[in-house]
Each structure stands twice: as structure tokens, then as C-alpha cells.
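Here is my example:
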Amino acid sequence: MSLIRALSKELEARSDDSLRALFSARPDLISPNVPDFPALAARASARVSVQRALERLNRPQMQVLETLHLCTNTDTAHSASAAGLKKLVHGASLSAIERILHSLEELALVHRADPPHGAALPAGPRQRFYLPVGSLRDVVGIYPAGLGRSYTELVRLQPAFAQRVVQLVAELHHSGAAIHPATTPMEAALALQHWTATPEALNRILATAPERTTGLLARFGNWAMGAVPQAQRRASVLNEGSDVGPVDWLLARGLLVPLDAAHVELPHSVGISLRGGAVIEDFTLTPPVPRLGQTTAALRRNAALGAIAETLRLTGDLLYCVREQPLVTLRSGGVGVREMKRLADSLRIELHDAGLLVELCALAGLVRLDVDSSAWVQPEQLEWLTLPRQEQWLWLVNAWLASERAPSLVGQPITGPGAGPAPHRAAAGTTINALSAEAQRPDAPVVRKRILEILNELTLEAAEADGKAPVLDAAAVLQRAEWTQPRMARRFSSLIRGVLAEAEMLGLIGSGALSQLGSAIAAERPDEALDILGEHLPAALNHVLLQADLTAVAPGYLAPELSEKLLMMADAEGQGPATIYRFSVASIRRALDAGHDAASLLGFLREHSATVVPQPLEYLVEDTAARHGRLRVGGASSFIQSDDEDALLELVKESGASGLGLVRIAPTVLISRAGPKETAQVLRALGLSPAVEEPESALVRLRRTTAVPGSGRPVYSAPRTAPPEADVDAQLAILRSHKGPHGGNGNGSHRPPAGSTGEEATQLGLETLQKAIRLRQSVVMNVVDSQGNSSRETVVPVSVTGGRVRVFDPARETERVLSIHRIIDIEAEEEFQQ
């Protein structure tokens, strides 16, 4: 019977509670809803869904699942039991393996099966036998549990090894090795397999090996493939002597098999024997406990609060800088190093920190890309500026948690040509620019959330009664991550240091330890985090200390409005919360250009100064204002000149001319922001007869409209969570409304039954194709041509990939490629004949 059909029957027999647990653990199974149990089984067996499910398994679960995969054969329905797996998993008890198999069954990754044909069952309680889902083979890859392929498979897939293997066995036999001679490559492969089948036999073989051979083989303990220069040339003849190196010795005896000119593979039987006859050597149900340092709770709290206050201050300063001078993007996307260096100098921080900060502001929507100017600007109405400081912080944290970007990648080198998803990719050797598509990582929210959860777990496990807090580094978190989710270990390793640095900048980590705020966020309790922050974070100050040396000292973190006004009329110096603002002629002139006058500037200073405004500062403001404005500079596209002053005054008041933005600069001259031609048209519409003295310039500026990745306020999806209860109830109602599985002819046919869903039919067809490819069996396909005519053909499938299947047609003795969407149904030839 088809594995999908068997899983469908098992799912239908489950209780509603069991199905609810399944949907909670694998929410993609009901997104969108499935119409019946066969469709649910097909989706649960799909490669993408199985891959997602495996990413949530811990190391013991993966070890048992991969061992089950190696012990079973889904093509022949050869199943395995917990007792059989126990022999191959050192350190595991029978009850532990049974519990793990049951948990895998609950996740629909394995299902019950009949015992193997002819298997001797012991007396006592009936053993349960299992088979994994069919797509597990594709998901775990060619090296499950880090073990290589068998000699027979290597002979079938490696032509160079197949040509040499008979001679290799003959040479070993003549040298006195306990191996049977062979006449065909397959017989030779079986002989090598039997020769290396036990740890004792392999130890006898290695007894005469050169020095360092055992150490070399130990490098293959976790992975079957390795890099060896000139591997095929070195696997030539059987050599003896002290001058033979361990690699040449192993290659000459077939203990390493060359794959190409630079790589070798350790065969399955050799790997098993090296592990003492087991698939798994290091089985344990408890995660590793890292050795952690300690810090005080006070240091942790102060460091976290200081980081939060500094981040909020720098965010406000960055928004002011962007409002004064937007960040211009490169033609290839992102903000260049020169532009970021200008921003970093304005904020008085390092270039890397500026990249982190601008990424954080962008993903929080505090700056957005203006597609007209291709520059990052601040939105006109920004609610963030008006919020209390703790809510500003939570705004940033929520945006960071849900962001599909990795800010810490900014400044790191691009490892290969065309790396990254951007349409305009950077060349190899360059670095990732801020706000470019190269920093996009769709898996970032899942990794970020899981790292926070691991930090919280380790903190709770190592909590001290005396108020000490454990210091957590990247190595400790990665060690736990590799145990809890080994399939995601590579993703964790590439992002973990950046995530920890970003979390420290946001105050989720303080002095190397997870703060109370970080624990609340990890546990998804944002209200608790707000309460903690509101209690401990100092309120923003609304005053400064004015000094006689034309400076203002901020005694702490200033309110955003006060900081913004000070930056307009003074230049900031130094770093940290106690910023010094220096007044000068240039800075006062900057405030006057923005529309302020001496009275408003002095009034603002008196209102927000804890001291009397010093006389030197007062003189500076008044003298600069007195000289300001004697020469005025403005913009105009055209002018209107007339000797009739009254007519010009009426024209300024005319509502029909309001769109021209008329300004009177002299009794007989008006300026217009519109061009000469447009201005003349408006005046003629008002009944006037203007004369255009100069034709409008023929220059037309074409604005570049190439889309830049990340335009607009970014919208990111949060990590997938369990589906809502209402959705689960609706899905259960749909499933229970069907009284049994769809059709089926009872003989294991893979022909989609009448009324089956497209999803089920597709998975059944792929299952049939893949099984026929592995067994080299013929199948019968019903194929539709471009005119809609269908024909039934008997072919032998060779490979399937990218929506196409390559088949061998025995009748025509040719190979051809068919599109899968043109195949109506497919089934094994012997089942069709039935």
C-alpha cells in the first residue's frame, strides 16, 4: 500500500485531541485548510512540510529517526521496531526509544506498519513496527546520521569505482586479505561490504595500517565525505611499505572511495564498524550543560538600562540627522560606506554601530525609502517621537523580533559572486551595505526567537539564590541550539553573534547576562517588560545647564523635542548621555535659517535652562540675528514684472493664482514657483495677457525609477506559531465531515481516486515516480499533449526534478523529458495490469 494511504488511515483513526496536538506542532498542515484525510496525509508527507517538522526536532529525536530510516526500506515496506533500533543506538534504553518513536508518530513523521516478512517475533507484548514517511529520504540527504552510502550503491553511482572494484578485490585477495574474489562489480561490492562488516574485522585490517591512519579515520566520525587532493589518481594500486601515507593506504584498499578529483567518501559498513557496530554512539536524553561565568544582578540591570537609554538617544539623533540630510542610496541598492561614514561622524559613533542603528530604524519604520528621490527619509507624521520612552523601546524590540533582516551582517564581506537575493548583486570581495537586500534573511525571526528562548532556558537552569546572573556567550548558546534543533545548527552559527550584539544594544542582555526585560520578551510577556522598564528607566530630562563658555551641558538623557531643538541651534560634542552642545555663529545662523528669530531662541533657552542664560550667549544670539537676513536667498522658477503695482497686489490675492506660490519681492516684481510657460497659462486663464520674454528651458530631467529592495516601511512576518483555536476547530469539522478516505482500489494502486484533491494526486504521483526510479521499474502514464489529446504510455522514469521527469521509452529506445503538469495519472506497470 502507498505510504500516503497508510498515513491517511492512521490520521483518520486519531482522536481530536491528537489531531489538535499535531496541528499545533505542525501549523503548516492546515494553512490553508485541507478537504480530507488523504489530502492531509499528502501534505504531511510533502518534502517542504517534513523539512519544517525536522527543524523542530531535538538531537535524540533526530538520531532515532535517522536510525529508523537506515533500518527500513519504504519501497519494500521493510519496517523496524524499538527493539531493533536499540541495538544500533548505544546508550539508549528500550523505553526511551519507544517514547521517541511515539512522539515522532504523533508528529506524523512515522506511522505503524506490519512486521517484516518472515520476522521472528519474541513472546510477550506485541512489538510495534514503524515506517518513516516516504519523503524523509530526500530531506535527510545521502548521509543520514553522517554515515556514507553502501559499497553496492557506490558501485552503481560511481562509474570509476565500478571499473576498478573487481581488480581491487582481486589484489586484496592475493595479498592475503580475508576477502572472497569476485567477477562482477556488484559481487566485488558485496565482498568489500562483508570484509568490513564488523568492528573486529575492521580492527584486523587496520592492524597493518601506517601511523596516523586511525586519527585520519576519526575525522570521518560525524560526516562521511572529506576533501583529498588528487583522490582518483591516488586510488591506484595496492601499496605496502613505510613510505605509504594513511590516505593512499586507505584508498588503495577501498576503505575510502574517491568521488571525484578532490573528494572521498567513507562507505557505510566502514563507518558502522568505526562506531563499534552502532549508528549512534553518543545518545543522551539530557542536553549539555555549559560552564558559565557570573555577574551581579545590579551590573546586569545597569548595563541593560544604560544600553536602552543610549539606543533611544541615538535613535532620536539619527532621526534628526536624516531629516536634515536624507541618506542617499546607491544605484545597486543600500546606503554606501561614504554616506554611512557621514552619519556615523554626525552621531559620533563607530561605523558598524551606525549600520546597526540605521537598520533598526528602517525595520521599525522610523525611516523609509522615498522612491522619488531614492533616499531614506523620516516620515512626516511619526508617532514614535510622541510615545513614552518605554513604549519607544518596545516599538523597536517588536520590530526587531519580527524583522526578516539581519542588521549585524552590515559591513561583513560578501563571500561569493552574486551572493544574496538582490536583483543587482554585488561582486565578490565587497561588503554588505546598510539597508541593502544582501542583509535579508527570511529565517531571521525564527532564529532570533529561538536564541532568546535558549538564553532564558540557560538562565533559569543556572539561576543562583544569591542574586548572581549567569553570563552567556555565543558558544554556550550554540551548544544548546545544536542539541535542541540540530537541523538548524548552521543557521544559528551564522547569526548567533550578531543576534546577541543586537540584543545587547536593545537591553535584552546586560553585562553578558539575559536581563529581566529579555526574560519577559523571551516568554512573550511584553506588558511585564513595559512595567519593569517604566519602573527603572530614568525619565527624560527637559532642561540643560547653560555655561558662560557658550556651551550647554545635558545632565542626562534629554527629551526628543529638547534634543532636536538643541541640535538645531548648537553642535553636539562628545559621546554618551552627558552631551555638550556648543553654540556658535554658524549654529545660531542655522536656527535662524529654519525660521526662528532671536526672541524665540532666547525664550526657548530660558524655558529649558536650569540656570540664567549667560550674557555671552545672549549677545551671540542677538548679534547674529541682527546681521541675519540682510541678504536673502530663495528659489523661483519664473518672475512676473509689471509697472502697475496695484495689479500685482490684486494678483497675489487672487485665489485662481494660489497654485503659483506668488511672492512679492519688489513693488513691481513677483516671483512664481512655476515655470514661465505654466505661469503664463494661469495668467491667461485669469483674463490677463502676459508676454513670455524667455522660452522655457528644453532640459527635461528624467528621475531614475529603478526599484530599490526594501522600499517603503518594511512589513515583516513574525515567526510561525500555533494556529488559532477557531481555525483548528474549523479544520476538524471539515475532516470529520468525510466518512472515510477517498476511494482507493484496495490493492495499493497509486492512481488518484475519483474526487481526489490535486494536492493528494500530486504527492501520490511523485511517490510512485520516486519509487520506480529507485527500483528501476516501469510505470504507466496518462500524458496530455499540447492539443489536449491524452495517450497512455509505458516508460521507465530516470529522474525527476524541477517539475520535469526524464523517462526512457523502451518502445522507441529513446530518452525524453516530460512536464509533470501534463501527466494526468501514473501507476506502477504491474498494478496497472491487475
Observations:
- Residues 416-429, 695-718, 741-756 have pLDDT under 50 and may be disordered.
- The longest helix spans residues 297-324.
- Residues 79 and 167 are 36 Å apart (CA to CA).
